[in-house]
Amino acid sequence: MYSASASQSPPLPFHLLFFLLTLLLLLGVSWYTSYEAILEGVFYQLKFLLVVSPLLLLIVLHWLSSDGLSFLVPFPEKESLHRAGGSPWGVGFLLLLLILMISYQSYFQDSWFPLSSR
């Protein structure tokens, strides 16, 4: 009794499909521009965190080495750490210098080797 074409819904009109596609395109562009600004701010803060993280790590290690957690972890005597040689602040300064040189690599490359940029 029932034919196969009667149980199917009629196709959407071409004008409605075109309108929906245009609407989705405009919404997508507006959402992209607002999310782009938000993500740019988040990436800027993460970049700052990555630059500051070695310094924060050094501060935490300095706090731990100066009896910060001596009640939880038994540390060796205080002078034995300094007999090993090297200063943690010197290592921190070297890490900071390395991070700055990596961040400004193109600037240093252009100023030190001006002929290679041509």
Strand fraction: under 5%
Radius of gyration, Cα only, in angstroms? 31 Å
Q: Write down the secondary-structure element order.
A: HHHH
- Given helix and strand content, the structural type is mainly alpha
Tally of DSSP β-strands = 0
Number of helices: 4
Count of discrete structural domains: 1
* Largest β-sheet summary: none
Indicate the low-confidence ranges by residue numbers: none
Q: What is the average of the pLDDT values?
A: 75
How far apart the termini lie comes to 80 Å
Helix content: over 70%
What's the overall geometry? elongated
Transmembrane segments: 12-32, 44-64, 89-108
Keywords: Membrane, Transmembrane, Transmembrane helix
Written overview of the protein:
Helices cover 72% and strands 0% of the residues. The chain has 4 helices and no strands. The N and C termini lie far apart (80 Å). The chain has one domain. The chain is mostly helical.
Topology:
Elements: H1 14-68, H2 78-83, H3 88-103, H4 105-112
Helix pairs in contact: 1-3
Transmembrane segments: 12-32, 44-64, 89-108
Keywords: Membrane, Transmembrane, Transmembrane helix
Main attributes of the structure:
single chain; 118 residues; mainly alpha; 0% strand; elongated; transmembrane; transmembrane helix; membrane
